[in-house]
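The protein record filed here:
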Amino acid sequence: MRVNSICPMDEFDSSKNKTATGENLLRFLMGTECGDLYMLAFDLRYIGLMSSISDVNQYEAGKFLIIEYLGGKLSECHSISYLSKGYAFYGSRLGDSFILKIQQDNTGDKDRRYFTIERTYPCLGNITDLVFRYTGDTKGR
C-alpha cells in the first residue's frame, strides 16, 4: 500500500500550540493507491515528549500519533482535499471521484466505516484514451 495523496483537515496555530479552532488533535486525510482512506492525527499535548527523548514514557509517547482506517473500496487516489465541515474531495484519474462526508461515528458499513459518499463524479478518462487509440487521433489530446 502506497499513500498517493495527503491533505490537512486542520490548521495549526503555533502561538497556541493547538489547531486554529483550539483543538489538541491535528488531523490529516490520506488516500492510497488501493482506494483506502485513512486519518492521521497528532495529539499536540504530547508534542513536547518528542523533543525530550530521554524522558519519554513509552505509554505516553504511543498517544502522540493516531492512524485510523476510515474505509476503502474507492478508486485509486490521485488527489484529496478537505473542503470544510467534514466534507472532502477524493479525486482519481483512473476511476470515479467523490465528495465524501467524514462521519464521527461508525456508519455500520464494513467497507466505508467512517465516511459516506455524498456525490460521485464518473471517470471518462479511460473511454477517451480508447477513442484516441482506435481512431489514431493524437491531436485531440
